[in-house]
Amino acid sequence: MATVRICVCGDEGTGKSSLIASLVKDVFVSNKIQPVLPQITIPPSIGTPENVTTTIVDTSARPQDRTTLRKEIRKSNVILLVYSDHYSYERVALFWMPYFRSLGVNVPVVLCANKSDLVDNTTPQVIEDEMLPVMSEFREIDSCIRASAREHQNVNETFFLCQKAVTHPIAPLFDYKEGNLKPACTLALKRIFYLCDKDQDGYLNDDEIQDFQAKCFDKALTPEDLDNIKLSISKSVPGSDTTKGVDMRGFLQLNKIYAEKGRHETIWIILRKYHYTDSLSLEDSFIHPKFDVPEYASAELSPAGYRFFMDLFLLFDKDNDGGLNDRELDALFAPTPGLPHSWMESSFPSTTVRNEAGYITLQGWLAQWSMTTFLEPKTTLEYLAYLGFEPPNVRETLTSALKVTKSRKRRRRPGRVERNVVLCYIIGAAAAGKSSLLNAFLNRPFDGLYNPTIKPRRAVNSVELQGGKQCYLILEELGELEPAILENQARLDSCDLICYAYDSSDPDSFSHIVNLRKRYPQLDDLPSIYTALKADKDKTTQRSELQPDQYTSSLMMSTPVHVSVTWNSIGELFVALAEAATNPSTAFPKSEEPPPDRTSLYLALGAMTCAAVAAFMIWRRSTNSA
Fold first, then answer.
1. Are the CB atoms for 279 and 388 separated by under 8 Å?
2. Mind listing the pLDDT tens digit for each residue in 312-354?
3. Rounded to an integer, what distance in angstroms lies between the CA atom of residue 257 and that of residue 236?
4. Residues 319, 331 contacting (CB under 8 angstroms)
């Protein structure tokens, strides 16, 4: 916010212009001043909250000036309503506040009782009896103050309250009527507590409090300050034990005390350090930072991103059983809106590796985030923000948890692609065994009951390549959306490999692949592998013009790999798929014999030509010298 615009309102003779003049001159102006002062702009100063420029607009309460008054009220960020005696005080509730509401403005109001030097009794009880009723009736009144332009008492404080009402509004934080922090504020502070509780023991110990203090206020607490904070919590929260540190109840109570004492700017400093907006939502630029993935490239987790998710898993695996149960997952995702939408749609955690109890393992956890980053990097960035990822270097941003791979547009070029996450579509006829293949990929036991796949289904796991390098392989079965996906060029561009799968015991299974390749000639642009599933059953002759071995040989490709999900060797297929995806030039169909390699012939002819030219030059030189 660059400017705070204060509209000063009130009855005639309440001292509005004198308050403004006393602020500007820093002393009471005893000479007669004009009824309405011109607009005043005050540049930011050391004491200005949030370093804002302040514009102060004086107004007239005369009926003939009502049009100008309406315009100025609508343009303002905050209204300073001034009264000075019983009559003008009664007019606050009878005229001014209803008038502001009739204009439909939604700005805070600061109520100022001016000319306090003329009042004999200004005890706190009298002030409370006078101001609290009107504050409870009109919730838009942010704060109240007594001031005197003549005595220059609380003048600066009055306008500071106006600035603070805009830069640090109390309304989103605290409900005066209920006497509690508002739900949105409570949720935000709970998330902040969660992020500060680094060891997740439910308490902020002294080190965690000091880290929080340094992050929010750039200075350390003295031992005395820390003891005073704990003492305040002990007094206001019955049964609290601060020997272990500050728990969630104590943290919320501390912020409630700040709100009750008018120190809500302290709460706002905390909230804004953790990227909260005035509406108590996280800044859009924070949870959705700019991150573009060029065409033919992909997004992956960087080493810092993998380290963060690994540490998160280990921190929340409280029973150290190597899996996250439902309670541990709920605790982990507490500061987020819940599981990502795409995870719920795909029936997480059935998409990745689980232990015998059905809980996601560390291997499955990292694989799941690898797949999420590959398919929807913006979701990963959003959850990194929710979960409190902090870049290892202070100059880096949230996007340092991700990296963009090198473009792989020219797939036929020999050599490996620089990718650690690859996507393979499993294509084949119904009942070919594609779902069983995905289950075997996730180490699930074989289930002979046939369940047709309606929606696309994915599975992700890590695969160790030759040489010991690890990559993450995503297998996707397309279901009834197979035709729509194969017609979508963008979906094909994101795919690294096609696995054509057929049932070697079903005579009609292979013809589906042949017809599919005829219907979608664009599939020739993708690397592919042919797989004969259910090899444990009797092999049958396929009702196709060419048998599978002949068909693949006609394309000058490897013959189909015969596998069964009941065999222990099924893992070799997944390694072959990952190898083909990361080295795509080895898995392309070829329509003709490759041209003979004449490189050696060209090199020999070149060498002979160079030798002949050299011999001729030597002969000429010897002839000329003779």
1. no
2. 999 999 999 999 999 999 999 999 999 999 999 988 999 999 9
3. 9
4. no
